[in-house]
Specification:
Number of strands: 7
CATH topology: Rossmann fold
EC number: 1.1.1.100
Family: Belongs to the short-chain dehydrogenases/reductases (SDR) family.
CATH architecture: 3-Layer(aba) Sandwich
Number of domains: 1
Structural class: alpha/beta
Strand order of the largest sheet: 3-2-1-4-5-6-7
Catalytic activity: a (3R)-hydroxyacyl-[ACP] + NADP(+) = a 3-oxoacyl-[ACP] + NADPH + H(+)
InterPro entries: NAD(P)-bd_dom_sf, Sc_DH/Rdtase_CS, SDR, SDR_fam
Protein name: 3-oxoacyl-[acyl-carrier-protein] reductase
Strand content: 15-25%
Length: 250
Amino acid sequence: MVLVTDFKDKLALITGATGGIGYATCLALAGLGCDIAVHYNSAAEKAQTLVAALREKGVKAECFQADLRSYDEVRRLHKEVVEKMGHPAILFNNAGITIKHGIKSIEEVDMDMFEQTWRANCGSAFLLTQLCIPEMEKKAWGRVIFCASVAGFIGGFVGPHYASSKSALHGLVHWLSQHYAHKGITVNAVAPALIADTTLLPGNPEDLAKKIPVGVLGRPEEIAETVVWMVKTGYLTNKVVGVDGGMFPQ
């Protein structure tokens, strides 16, 4: 295992970087000295603003557009990042969609909704990991982190399409970590629940906060700090860490 304490030569690719968690994580990893590849789908202006903020921190940063519901666009994203910035040593598969929340009956989820959710939340994360890992192997160092969800543990408030797409990430963590730990690559997931300032909140923030034992919504910065811990800690792998205000006991 290669011990790394200086991250100034490490490139982090963060999907869904213009959302609350992604944005905060970009800033947090830049604080370690990482260069940042900012992925976005439609929020081009916010992506440019984030890139400017990252460059002010003294790191290299570029933004890349891709719709992760398309596997061809996932491949294009990886190709463009490598050509412009190099190979990612850190991959945070953060992007996700819900399409619809508050599902009460399985009949409300048609197969198009199910397939789109799985492609964006799980399939694209699998493919991007598949594309990034070979170079991590060559360098005997890498960090793969998935943004799962407490819904993967308990079902959650969104629906079966979302919960199943997130629980699938848990299985990826467990398989990948066992096969790549000896090659210097750690694989983990953070599983948030009900985070403020994100587009995935399934309802009114005040009502949702009442469902959480600590009584408040989580902050994007709290998830970002968990990701930083996973990046810095080489002895940590094969873990799905809930950051959920006490909703699910681990």
